[in-house]
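Predict the assembly for these four chains.
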Amino acid sequence: MTHLLVVDDEQDMVDLVTMYLENAGYTVSSALSGEEAEEKLKELKPDLILLDIMMPGRDGFAVCEAIRSYSDIPIIFLSARGEEWDKVRAFSLGGDDYIVKPFSPGEMTARIQAVLRRFGSSTDKRETIQHQTLLIDIHSRAVKVDGTAVGLTMKEFDLIVLLAKNRGRIFSREELLETVWGTEYRGGTRTVDTHIKTLRMKLKHEGASIETVWGIGYKFVDGTI
Amino acid sequence: MTHLLVVDDEQDMVDLVTMYLENAGYTVSSALSGEEAEEKLKELKPDLILLDIMMPGRDGFAVCEAIRSYSDIPIIFLSARGEEWDKVRAFSLGGDDYIVKPFSPGEMTARIQAVLRRFGSSTDKRETIQHQTLLIDIHSRAVKVDGTAVGLTMKEFDLIVLLAKNRGRIFSREELLETVWGTEYRGGTRTVDTHIKTLRMKLKHEGASIETVWGIGYKFVDGTI
DNA sequence: AATAAGTGTGAAGATTATTTGAAAAAGACG
DNA sequence: CGTCTTTTTCAAATAATCTTCACACTTATT
């Protein structure tokens, strides 16, 4: 299991990123300052660090520089759009990539995967989700029902993965929008309904596994109850 | 002029090996880490890599594995006597030979010549990729569809090899640019689209194996899920 | 049973990404 | 230096996806 460390001084941002990443299948720890980050790095030995640049006290660059004196762990910088910062400096200090806020869950996980792959640390083992005749390959984003391939769009795929990974858990439309669409989405919640509809249709008989929880949201059936 | 790349984290060892090899008439470049090695590989396109196994961060095995996903360049491992390492693993990861430190200049050049000779006689190691009626011979850079030769340009060939070697894996345009074009490329990502277009056209019906992953990038079909 | 609130569905419209053709730019080669 | 090939750029056309909306339908409440 890949273990990530999120470093940001804003608790809200930490919570958001953590949610994104946990849904993508990562184990996530967090730190609210550079000092805490270095402690947790030594203690927990994560596989990658997501490091905010703008922090009170020691900023992300300083933290990166300190870490680089004793560790080669991959570091991805986070920076708010419009913030003054130096891309060249980020890389010259040993950063491996950078992500500009606001970012979508998809972009974030794609970049993390790319960096981990570059480092060879992620054993690119094939990760799949299976439920009866439904088979989902997360990395190649391929879906099969009864052995035949089903073409899903990006949102549809992210939706079914989120639901199927958390069987039995009920998601409100707002939760689904926040996790799959991202925080910057400003539209109606009925959009979710439409995507659920097409998903059910495309997944044929397996579509019945997506259940409506009246008045609350949707869930993927949990076979254990 | 044969061009070698020496990868070792110890500057002294790099200097020593470089001296040996330059005296033997080779052009020598060096890298002090796996990341640097991959950058220089793309940039300088050496003929052979001498790769130290014991390095902090990514060790030689990890670097070799990463390189093998897109390149067939001969790799000779370097290892210190008494170091714990697995000869079988070295070869299974795609290594071509190994040399135990300390070594004499004579031993080193002899082994390099042996490996280069083995690779030079293209019939010796014929590596091919096959998918239905598509046949790719990596060393002669020849491509056939339905038994008839297809003329690909350099970029087109590198692209199809990268994609076909990693079936099912989704590559973003940025990743493709970085791996095929190299890190110093500074142009638009639409260039990739154009090359994909001509590839699909030239590969005729096999062109359908290159699938668009909408909103993310491209992948070569993987029937195996 | 009547009512209110929530959900399903099909179609249309808006949005975004990709494909494609053509042409310019950059290299390769004699 | 001109010619040929390869690579890159660009914008219009196409295609895929996402969103909205109206209306039918279902479920819960009184």
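Residues 121-125 of chain B have pLDDT under 50 and may be disordered. The longest helix of chain B spans residues 105-120.
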